[in-house]
């Protein structure tokens, strides 16, 4: 096979692609964690539906449990849910931007190197 010359610009693109790829992996992990948090909050909201209005419900804030009545606890959980949904949307937006850049880099690099380069991740 013939040797392919890699210019400095091409090397920069390859490095940028690799950096974006690593960032996407981090975002996937972060997204999974947030989606898990969301699931927990939604389950908690369902669970406390059955509680008595006058019962104190412990609510973990940071590393401290605070007790509140049902209505206040539902309010806090709803706020937590909304915040988590915003965080998920933010992560997804970042991932979309990075994916767009990766697609551009990928198109350029495949056009330049064809089958001599492999940019696909193993997942």
Automatic annotation (TrEMBL):
GO terms for biological process: protein folding. The keyword Coiled coil applies. GO terms for molecular function: unfolded protein binding. Pfam families: Prefoldin_2. Transmembrane segments: none annotated. Keywords: Chaperone, Coiled coil. Residues 17-44 form a coiled coil. It comes from the Eukaryota. GO terms for cellular component: cytoplasm; prefoldin complex. The keyword Phosphoprotein does not apply. Heterohexamer of two PFD-alpha type and four PFD-beta type subunits. Belongs to the prefoldin subunit beta family. PANTHER family: PREFOLDIN SUBUNIT 4. Binds specifically to cytosolic chaperonin (c-CPN) and transfers target proteins to it. Binds to nascent polypeptide chain and promotes folding in an environment in which there are many competing pathways for nonnative proteins. This is Prefoldin subunit 4. It comes from Drosophila rubida. The lineage of its organism: Eukaryota, Metazoa, Ecdysozoa, Arthropoda, Hexapoda.
